[in-house]
Write a structure and sequence with these properties.
By secondary structure, the protein is mostly helical. The chain is about 60% helix and about 10% strand.
């Protein structure tokens, strides 16, 4: 698993022009950076996701500034999660939760002499719990599911199922490069994952990277030689490349595997 990303890689991952990615990183982390860590990348992606929800830039950057000021000097900023819940921007940092703009704790002990940031601990959720929540939410609230999958992979970068499902939701939104990154991450965590391999081939196909897509479909068939859809897509891509013999061979395999039994 990669431990650091350049601005160019952030640009590719988020599908942003290089200058926009550089600005986003500087805003999210309150300083220009040439390289970001995995945890910092999650914070940058959060800022990007919030901006796509049509939240105003000054509201996002203001909330991030408040988060930095509230965090102890020795606490890593990347350890926090920033989410929009209804009309609120909510920060979760370990066992603590508060409104990112007002500083008001979501759960207040009400102890005398304590300010709004004296927080009662709330249970933290591990990656598997976040994953299960996301699965349950997919039919009800796809945006919440997407957020939960993102939090799951931030909590456990090797949670292959969360990467696959997050990639699929991003893929459906035509955020192809982000989807690609999560399918690759799933394969890093679990190299024999047929779904991740096939989905990666599809997203490479969607990106117009035909030769890479062909190679990935073939690798998928090494994992599961009976996957008929992979033969169908290979037949189509070989036809597109003008390789008639290969196209017919894979189409024949597709029909053989798809025939009623």
């Amino acid at each position: 698993m990669k431990k650091a990303w350049s601005i160019s890689e952030v640009s590719t991952l988020l599908g942003l022009p290089l200058d926009d990615a550089r600005t986003l990183v500087a805003d999210a982390l309150e300083a220009p950076r040439d390289v970001v860590s995995f945890q910092e990348l999650q914070l940058v992606r959060t800022a990007h996701r919030l901006s796509q929800r049509q939240l105003k830039k000054d509201r996002i950057t203001g909330a991030l500034k408040n988060v930095r000021e509230e965090q102890p000097a020795d606490a890593p900023l990347a350890a926090v999660t920033l989410r929009n819940l209804g009309k609120e921007l909510v920060v979760e940092a370990g066992a603590h939760r508060w409104n990112a703009e007002s500083g008001q704790a979501l759960l207040d002990l009400g102890a005398p002499g304590r300010g709004a940031n004296w927080l009662r601990p709330v249970p933290t959720r591990d990656a598997q719990a976040l994953f299960e929540h996301a699965v349950a939410q997919e039919e009800k609230d796809a945006d919440d599911a997407l957020d939960a999958y993102a939090e799951a992979v931030a909590a456990d970068p090797y949670h292959a199922d969360a990467h696959v499902n997050l990639g699929r939701l991003l893929h459906q939104r035509k955020r192809f490069r982000e989807a690609e990154a999560h399918y690759v991450a799933a394969l890093v965590a679990r190299p024999t994952d047929v779904t991740a391999s096939f989905n990666l081939a599809v997203v490479l196909d969607d990106l117009g990277r035909t030769d890479e897509a062909i190679a990935r479909y073939r690798e998928t068939l090494e994992l599961d030689p009976a996957l008929s859809d992979a033969y169908f897509h290979l037949a189509r891509l070989y036809e597109k490349k003008g390789e008639k013999v290969a196209a017919l061979r894979h189409l024949k395999d597709y029909r053989r595997l798809s025939a009623p039994r």
